[in-house]
Queue: 2 jobs
Job 1
Amino acid sequence: MGLRTILKGGDPALRKPSRDVTNFDKRLHILLDDLAETLEHAKGAGLAAPQVGVLRRVCFINIEEPIELCNPRIVSREGEQEGAEGCLSVPGKTGIVKRPDKVVVEAQDRYGKRFTVEGEGFLARAFCHEIDHLDGVLYTDIMERFMTMEEIAELDKT
Ligand code: CO
């Protein structure tokens, strides 16, 4: 299929809980490939299936390396970080969001094989953000506040 349309803000699909993946089939592989392609095109760090209108517990993160997650669950959280967070479904905005500093995630790969992955700092933030999408939660629901234009400009310098 290729590039998919990223749903924005008030779209009802972004607010619904996604269903577990049960078939690790060709259709899932196409979805994962499309998420990767769409994310690369949008120059983002992560994308969840509901953001392209597919209510399945699937997301793709590309920070240090590409990670495909099916049925991901956070099994441990440690510490706290407060920092800038954005979302391709909330374009042009950045919020300040508190997240755990370190998380451990259990998930399945595209063939159904279980694995555990650990994330710290920005990667931990991305895991939390993408998994929230699978429950119909946007960062704007839990943020402290939006950042001002001045704060964002300051952030871009670093
Ligand atoms: Co997002």
Note: The CA atoms of residues 4 and 131 lie 20 Å apart.
Job 2
Amino acid sequence: MDLIERLSIIHRERFGIPPLHVVRAPGRINLLGEHVDYNDGFVLPAAIDRAAYIAFSPTTAPHSTLEAVDFDQQASISAETLPTKTQIDASPLPEWGLYPAGVMWALLEAKIPVMPMNAVFASNVPRGAGLSSSASVEMAFMLAWQTLGGWELPPMQRALLGQKAENRYVGVNCGIMDQFASACGVENKLLLLDCRSLEWKTLPLPDTVSIVVADTGVRRKLTSGEYNNRRAACEEATRLLQRDLPHVKSLRDVNAEEFDRLAKKLPEEIGKRARHVVEEIGRVKQAEASLEAGDVGNFGRLMNECHVSLRDLYEVSCPELDAMVEIAQSLEGCYGARLTGAGFGGCTVNLVSNEKIEAFVQKLAKGYESKTGLRPEIYITRAANGAELVE
Ligand code: GLA
């Protein structure tokens, strides 16, 4: 039975009627432009064919009742319970409940009406794996409330409200990339976003290659602390560089030559973090030209360079991610491999020639298991549409 059918059955069991609608919002991979969205840089993600799904219907109750099938838990929330992060019976919100509650909070802050609903949701985006499972839940709830509310916001506006929910309600200081990709994804296309102007366009991925996601199975707990700390290092670098370059508003405004000239003035660790950002933004610009010219070879090389930079300069990799990347890069047909998302565990993304793909998947799984003793989950994914009404 597929997920939508299962959700519809559970909706009927819990609420006595079939759902009025079903929405889906995808997770994402990022091909290039890692840890640059919060530096006003350029990113190159794609929404993927794994998503959060919600089956829902309006209710006359004054609150929304949400059932998380993956956790086998329910939570009821309303405008009144939001400030205390509790449910209507005053018990604390479970962690998963922070995402829909955050979305409700961001909508109400923007003076957008939120109609109470009964909802059942589940996701096949692995959690904590760097594939933006939380952004996909946020974008799915945003679309569900839009569908019931009779208002319509452009996808980018929904993404921005989702980011606000995550920054200000959930408490993770993320950039715009994940919510953007989940809201704006386009089937079979990569998305190139300018995180300063929020202008974006699609880029083609040649149809001779596929995207392979390889999950190390490793999940790091400290992620949000480390993430916020990387962000703070970039802000500090900007502040220090402004002494010589007063026009600089973020690392986006520093070019490679200027950076090389001034890097010695920065404390070593801050300098390494900033060098990653400056060079990574440069790589995304080169990648745009490579993709437009159909040069997968060069694009893959840029992905490989990105991994080295995340490992040695930004220091957000881990031994398992490095092992997965090294093995992938040694296999025939692999153009590029690197960690994807925030890092510290989770998944790698690989660009692989269609002709070699089966052997690639098998050899990568075997090689990783014999090196680490862990059995990885490896799958071919494709670029999918952003959040949409399914039924
Ligand atoms: C997480 C954040 C994004 C982005 C990436 C790193 O996924 O949510 O905003 O910063 O890390 O590129």
Note: Residues 236 and 270 are 7 Å apart (CA to CA).
